[in-house]
Amino acid sequence: MSAALLQAFSMVFEPYTILVMVLASLYGLFVGAVPGLSATMAVALLVPVTFFMPPIPAIAAMVTATAMAIFSGDIPGCLLRIPGTPASAAYTDEAFAMTRKGMAETALGAGLVFSAVGGLFGTVVLIVAAPALADFALNFSSFEYFWLVLLGLTCAVFITSDRPLKGMVTLLLGLLVACVGLGNPAGFPRFTLGNAEMTGGIGMIPMMIGMFAISEVIRFAVDTLPPGEIVVEKVGRVLSGQWALAKKYPVQILRGSVLGTAVGALPGAGADIAAWMSYAMSKKFSKEPEKFGTGHVEGIVESGSANNSALAGAWIPALVFGIPGDSITAIVIGVLYMKNLNPGPTLFTTNPQNIYAVFMLFIIANIIMIPLGILCIKVSKRILRVPRNVLMPLILLFCIVGAFAINNSLFDVGVMLAAGIVAYLLEENGFPIAPAILGVVLGGMLEENFITSMIKSDGNLAGFVSRPIAASLAVVVVLVWLAPLLKKLWVKGRRAAPSTAA
Q1: Are 115 and 271 in contact (CB under 8 A)?
Q2: 3-state secondary structure string, 310-378?
């Protein structure tokens, strides 16, 4: 173990890796601070660059860029009332109200400090939980993996959307895309339409670049609203008063960090949902809920802790089971396979130095967030005034070059553009795209484990619940499926009870 730790230490603290982390941090801060550009888009645009990097620097770039982008999304939300990333949308009105009251420093400082605290908390949980889960996962067979993947797909529908039916539609769309090509257990060409390019399947990375970057370019092109005006002229001492807030709201910090990590570990959820849930919980349990919405820092403290702790939480199922916790780790899994760091329980036993390096990267990313975040806040006016009509064509150009560079194929560029148009149309009509991404990533795994299990059990479906862990997971999946119906019956029963008594 000590030898693996020393090896990880040398990989992380070599000059090249540190330089990559600093550059990725500045890039993440910039992308997050520009309204409309998400952390997922930042990672998707990084993928072509990681082709030319060793494994650890490639992961370092993604970890640091994501953490910085999630935080810096708070800056335009606070100063413009336009959230930089979806994770910042939960408390944008609160932060903007504080800016109106002349408390921009407090709002931005709270977002920065407690994002770092939440990120470190999530990292500690990742360090403790991931190896323990990996040991447990070594007992898994295809039966357990089938139910686990099914649970992940189910959670993606019910958690990421307040309209499960629309979530189910996009999930099925993702599963359909996963069926394309020869990459199925039978090796039979499916849905290739006679096109030789499609026999290799639809490329996951071009598709994700399209869904998260091209869709934003299209959204900007059709947006006729003028940009908002910056309210505050100067931001002073950002860290002033943050220690007092930490002493005043320790329960909120812990609650936000725990909730964020737990939500992040659920497949398909991620920082966006963690922030919204945490803000709602903060208001529900607050001693002064009437102050929420008027410029009260309590909700920012709790939600800021939640959104960054969710990032580390999402890596737990990604590293242990190869099941992405959010759309960011869905992209990361593709990069891990590309770098021969195949996620799964064996990764912890065969290459422990790589896992230790990932843990160190998370710790460093959350520590350097504070000084670099202060710098970003200081120059935020300049970042926010980058003309979008200059930025968006550059992003489009980078997307095209990146998609082409993956396989030197124009077909991948077409996939990316088509995916961008489809994602834009879906989101404009209220369909969440996260379930579609989960469907693409997990579709092949679901089919492979189903076929393997059927062969093992000689076609007997009872084999899927013949093992204790598989049976337990099956029960959980069925309960999640039945939850909406049970909730509806319970509400109906509560309504019927008073009328019966009357």
Answers
A1: no
A2: HHHHHHHHHHHHCCCCCHHHHHHHHHHHHCCCCCCCHHHHHCHHHHHHHHHHHHHHHHHHHHHHHHHHH
Given its phi and psi angles, is residue 323 left (phi above 0), alpha (psi -120 to 50 degrees) or beta? beta
Grouping H, G, I as helix, E, B as strand and the rest as coil, residue 129 is helix
Binning pLDDT at 50, 70 and 90, where does residue 387 land?
A: confident
Give the pLDDT confidence of 186-196 residue by residue, as tens digits.
778 888 888 88
Residue position matching structure tokens 């009872």? 462
Residue of 254, 308, 311 lying closest to 281 (CA atoms): 254
CA distance linking residue 137 with residue 140, whole number of Å: 5
**With the CA atoms of 247, 253, 254 and 259 taken in that order, what torsion angle do they form, in degrees rounded to the nearest 10?**
170
Taking 70 as the threshold, does the pLDDT of residue 48 lie above it?
A: yes
Task: Give the pLDDT of residue 216.
Answer: 78
pLDDT tens column, 82-100? 677 777 777 888 888 888 8
Cα torsion at 171, 443, 128, 338 (round to 10°)?
-120
Eight-class DSSP state of 210: I
Q: Where is pLDDT greater, at 295 or 64? A: 64
Interatomic CA distance for residues 130 and 121, integer angstroms: 14
The DSSP 8-state label assigned to residue 190 in this structure reads B
List pLDDT tens digits, range 343-377. Answer: 888 888 887 888 899 999 999 999 999 999 888 88
Span between the terminal Cα atoms of the chain, in Å: 69
Q: Would you state the torsion angle of the CA atoms of residues 63, 67, 68, 71, taken in this order, to the nearest 10 degrees?
A: 170
Helical axes 142-159 vs 164-178, angle rounded to 10°:
140
- What single letter denotes the amino acid at residue 116? A
Upper half-sphere CA count for residue 19 (Cβ side, 13 Å) = 4
d(CA 375, CA 462): 60
- The tokens for 15 are 């000059």
**Contacts of 256 by beta carbon, 8 Å cutoff, 6+ apart:** 114, 118, 278, 282, 301, 302, 303, 304, 305, 306, 309
Render pLDDT for 417-433 as a digit per residue (tens, 0 to 9): 999 999 999 988 888 88
**Each residue of 403-416: b (16+ CB within 10 Å) or e?**
bbebeebebbbebb
CA–CA separation, 328 and 312 (whole Å): 11
Q: What is the structure's pLDDT at 231?
A: 53
How far apart are the C-alpha atoms of 274 and 280, rounded to whole Å?
A: 10
Altogether, the residues listed in the chain come to a count of: 502
| pLDDT digit string, tens, across residues 191-237 | 888 888 888 888 877 887 788 778 878 888 887 655 555 555 566 67
